[in-house]
């Protein structure tokens, strides 16, 4: 939903606003009336081939969209032949930009090597070099924040550096900063389930030929499903997903979990809960289908699940019989059978292990949107597609 101030600006008489899309390249279907105002795009997601004649169209599959923004700033400053960047690029702005680059690349972690592009490296090195020219550094700027030493847990202070020669220099310089950001981002100890759902929430609207607009939501948190099961219980998770979807008028709600595989359930009584920094990285996906006899009857839900399982996400049923296995595969790969036995929850919530751990929400949304766009009415459900 658009902020009222922006609605007022767009709908104002005689106004000719310019909209620039950053970190996405299309507006929500319900806001398509704004398309005519889009003059520029800076994005790293799948190119939907829209706004082809916009003044700025900077789409590249970099790891961090901030890299594209930084390099555009760099190019413009060079064009203006500004010799002293400190007024245009003060240290606090540089630190803000580096925060996104650090988090998006996981401090240039080796596991992100396939995602990290030359633009990510160039943008980060340029910002670090600017700090050096100013006679400061990332660590020096952090020293101005008196609480840093108390926020960063000892366990993650020194084991987040990249061992790759290509990234080592950058990673070392950002290590302490990343530890701080990671710690703050990972602390979900004071959040209830609704808070978690709202923490990193995105609404997606899909056009379906038979049903019109289908709205579904996605939420992502840096914590594994076993942590949530241990803390809240599976029934409360299902109930709250149901409530959240209905309160937001969603036809489906998808909850994404990610993190390291080490068991953190023993830390439930601690004041903060940080994701472990050892063990294999993994993901889980939980999906709620809102009760709708026309859109999501049992057949269409099963078809949707089958298509998701066959997609690049590589979803298999989450193994509730061994919750401490952190998403170990269920014995059977037959999803319908497993979910009749294991996931027979009244609210139609389905829990999966995502075996393709490289696929983030950026890859999940196009896959889910494509599947939901093809759902047919009951009379057409014998179609080979859905």
Structural commentary:
The structure is a single chain. With 386 residues, the protein is α/β, with parallel strands linked by helices. It has helices at residues 4-11, 65-79, 91-104, 118-133, 138-142, 148-151, 168-186, 193-199, 225-232, 234-247, 298-310, 335-341, 361-373; strands at 19-22, 38-43, 56-59, 201-208, 212-221, 252-260, 281-289, 315-317, 349-354. The strands form 2 sheets. It has a 6-stranded mixed β-sheet with strand order 4-5-6-7-9-8. Strands 1-2-3 form a 3-stranded parallel β-sheet. Strand 4 and strand 5 (212-221) form a beta hairpin. It is globular.
The assigned CATH architecture of the largest domain is Alpha-Beta Complex
Note the total helix count. Answer: 13
What low-confidence regions span 5 or more consecutive residues with pLDDT below 50? 263-277, 323-346
Spatial arrangement of strands, main beta sheet: 4-5-6-7-9-8
GO molecular function: exopolyphosphatase activity
Domain DHHA2: 178-372
Protein name: Exopolyphosphatase
Pfam families: DHHA2
């Amino acid at each position: 939903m658009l902020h009222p101030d922006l609605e007022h600006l767009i709908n104002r008489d005689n106004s000719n606003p310019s909209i620039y899309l950053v970190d996405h390249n299309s507006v929500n279907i319900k806001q398509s009336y704004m398309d005519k105002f889009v003059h520029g795009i800076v994005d790293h997601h799948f190119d939907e081939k829209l706004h082809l004649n916009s003044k700025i169209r900077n789409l590249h599959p970099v790891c961090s969209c901030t890299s594209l923004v930084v390099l555009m700033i760099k190019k413009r400053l060079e064009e203006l032949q500004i010799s002293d960047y400190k007024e245009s690029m003060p240290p606090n702005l540089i630190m803000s930009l580096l925060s996104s680059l650090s988090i998006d690349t996981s401090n240039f972690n080796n596991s992100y090597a396939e995602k990290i592009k030359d633009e990510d490296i160039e943008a980060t090195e340029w910002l670090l070099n600017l700090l050096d020219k100013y006679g400061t550094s990332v660590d020096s700027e952090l020293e101005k924040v008196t609480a840093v030493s108390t926020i960063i847990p000892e366990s993650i202070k020194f084991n987040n550096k990249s061992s790759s020669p290509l990234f080592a220099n950058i990673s070392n310089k950002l290590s302490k900063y990343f530890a701080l950001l990671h710690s703050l981002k990972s602390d979900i100890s004071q959040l209830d389930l609704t808070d978690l759902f709202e923490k990193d929430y995105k609404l997606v609207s899909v056009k379906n030929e038979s049903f019109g607009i289908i709205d579904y939501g996605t939420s992502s948190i840096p914590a594994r499903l076993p942590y949530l099961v241990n803390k809240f219980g599976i029934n409360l998770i299902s109930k709250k997903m149901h409530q959240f979807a209905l309160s937001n008028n969603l036809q489906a709600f998808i909850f994404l979990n990610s993190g390291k595989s080490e068991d953190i359930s023993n830390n439930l009584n601690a004041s903060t809960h940080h994701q472990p920094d050892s063990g294999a990285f993994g993901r889980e996906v939980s999906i709620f289908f809102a009760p709708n006899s026309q859109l999501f009857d049992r057949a269409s839900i099963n078809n949707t699940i089958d298509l998701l399982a066959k997609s690049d996400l590589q979803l298999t049923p989450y193994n509730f019989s061994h919750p401490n296995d952190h998403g170990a595969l269920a014995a059977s790969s037959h999803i319908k059978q497993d979910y009749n036995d294991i996931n027979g929850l009244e609210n139609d919530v389905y829990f999966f292990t995502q075996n393709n751990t490289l696929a983030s929400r950026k890859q999940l949304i196009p896959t889910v949107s494509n599947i939901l766009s093809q759902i047919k009415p009951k009379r057409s459900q014998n179609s080979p597609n859905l």
